[in-house]
Amino acid sequence: MKKQFAIIGLGRFGVSVSTELYKLGHDVLAIDNNEEKLDDITNHSTYSAVADGTDEKELRNLGITNFDHVIVAIGDDLQASILCTLLLKEMDIPSVWVKAQNFHHHKVLDKIGADKIIHPEHDMGNRIAQHLVSDRVIDY
Ligand code: ATP
User: Fold this and answer.
1) Pairing relation of β-strands 4-8 and 47-50?
2) ipTM for this prediction
3) 139: CA distance to ligand 1 center in Å?
């Protein structure tokens, strides 16, 4: 079934998540506050928009409250990531997944109600290790 996703922050992680969701046939709203970041995503998302993820009015104007799933993929700016997550949870978005930079960031995101906290490098390392020792690789 087709789902609606909004991705806020179009670094490598945000672009990769957006592109794959779109490829899988879902509706994707891709958001970044830097217009240049939208150039590459336009053909790999349903809608794209320049907006500040820490600005409630801008998010509401984009109809963010109609989305069940929002992924916060803002990287280095921890303050922006935290504020954006807080706003989304205050707006009652049911599922807010957030990319964390470090343990302290993770702790704050947990406290303010992020539904899933992602550490891409750590999670990918785990998956690769499991894949390396899986039966299929041993057989190979
Ligand atoms: P990656 O590792 O995924 O490439 P990163 O961890 O280096 O990303 P950044 O490049 O710092 O993360 O941020 C990801 C994106 O988030 C950038 O494209 C940046 O323009 C965007 N971004 C930062 N602050 C905001 C904000 N307040 N609102 C919307 N987008 C933002």
Assistant:
1) unpaired
2) 0.94
3) 41
